[in-house]
Each structure stands twice: as C-alpha cells, then as structure tokens.
Specification:
alpha+beta; about 20% helix; about 30% strand
C-alpha cells in the first residue's frame, strides 16, 4: 500500500522538477554559431534587459532563424526569439510586422508577424524574449 502511494507521487515530483528546469539554448546551425561567437568574442554577458534603449532595424543582424543581434554603440544585444522570425535564417524576402505594447522600443513580449515580402502572405510569427547585453570589458 505504501508503494502504491509512493508511485502515485512520482509524477507530481517529476512535474515540480520540470518547472525548475533551465530553458534549452536554441539549436544553431554551425554557421550561425560561428558568426555569433565571432560577434561576441571578448565580450562579457550582462543581466538580461526587457527593452532596448533604442531600436533601429539597420542595426539588427540575423544570425539564424531564431537569433537576432542588435548593436547600440559598444553594446551588442542578443535576442533568442520564441518562434522563427526569419525561417530561412536571412532577412531576404521576409518582413517583420511587430506589435508593440505601450512603447516605441523593442521589448520582451513584442510579437512579430512574419510576412513574405513578395506575396504579402503571412508565414508565421515570433515573440521577443529578454535581450542579453554583451559589452567589452
């Protein structure tokens, strides 16, 4: 009888443990991983921030389908999105139409619709997470 109660509790403990699990790093293709490593060489990660101080799309670089890098002066911000903002890993042929909530800055929680630039067809969506700043020491 004690064994049956103990076995019934195992799924509960498993769920509690899953809640404390760290999020998995995005799967990067080798080329994207090499590009990101080169961009961040010698930089130190800071505490994640919810919004970028400024947002200029020409300061953004697509690393792979779910990783974006923003540059603001000496700081490089890495954004690992939920969903694929750039399904083919490039800006070519895709426009992000972003819905912002209460700010003109790029912030965690912003949702972007991925639209094919030639046909205007909706191709999916992605959401921004926190931005991780990397600075030179």
């Amino acid at each position: 009888m004690v064994t049956a109660r103990l076995l019934a509790a195992v799924p509960i403990f498993a769920m509690i443990g899953a809640c404390n699990a760290q999020p998995l790093a995005p799967d990067r293709d080798p080329r994207g991983a090499a590009t990101l490593a080169q961009l961040l060489a010698g930089r130190i990660a800071g505490a994640p921030v919810n919004c970028l101080p400024t947002h200029r799309t020409n300061d953004m670089e697509v690393i792979d389908r779910d990783t974006l890098v923003y540059r603001d002066g000496r700081t490089t911000y890495v954004q690992n999105t939920d969903g694929y903002c750039y399904p083919n890993g490039r800006k070519d042929g895709v426009i992000l139409v972003t819905t912002r909530f209460g700010s003109d800055r790029a912030c965690s929680g912003d949702i972007s619709r991925v639209v094919d630039s030639s046909s205007g067809i909706f191709r999916g969506s992605c959401a921004f997470n926190e931005f991780i700043p990397y600075r030179l020491p």
